[in-house]
Amino acid sequence: MQKIAKFEKVSITEFLKCGSKETFDGVILPRRATAGSAGYDFFSPVTFTLEPGETAKIATGVRVKIADGWVLMIYPRSSLGFKYRLTLNNTVGVIDSDYYNAENEGHIFIKLTNCGDKPLTVEKGKAFAQGVFTPFGITEDDDCIAARTGGIGSTDRP
User: Fold this and answer.
1) CATH number of residue 85's parent domain
2) Is residue 37 situated within a structural domain?
3) What percent of the chain has pLDDT over 70?
4) What is the pTM of this model?
5) How deeply is 57 buried, as exposed, middle or buried, from its count of CB atoms within 10 A (0-12, 13-18, 19+)?
6) Measured CA distances, 155 to 5, 30, 97, 102, 151 (Å)
7) Which residue from 55, 95, 122, 131 has the fewest beta carbons nearer than 10 Å?
8) According to the model, what pLDDT value does residue 152 have?
């Protein structure tokens, strides 16, 4: 199996913009549950409850260095989507390889909505999302040379 990425914590300075030192100290880097798992589980750094229709933005404290030609796709954990209709607000999170170098250090945030009809509580340290690495290609006439500087949603800004 080809190794193409490495998860890291963002710096404490970056994390303190949206969280506490205690929360940062408890950040768990994503990992697979079994050797056959495609997805890397993302663990919640805090306990949170979502009532039906509620939304939460989770600062994971995680960044990822990804080899060129690969992307990390973020999805809700399958069981939470099935049992609670938990969805990501952007449907699928796309973490590009150059996001690692963004102004926010490539800090991965996951914004969720409980679209179901019962409350969902995720305890600190429990898996709530999963990331799958996927290769991608470019067109023969692609001549893009622009470099990312901003964070989430910045690739369409000059």
Assistant:
1) 2.70.40.10
2) yes
3) 94
4) 0.91
5) exposed
6) 21, 25, 12, 11, 8
7) 55
8) 58
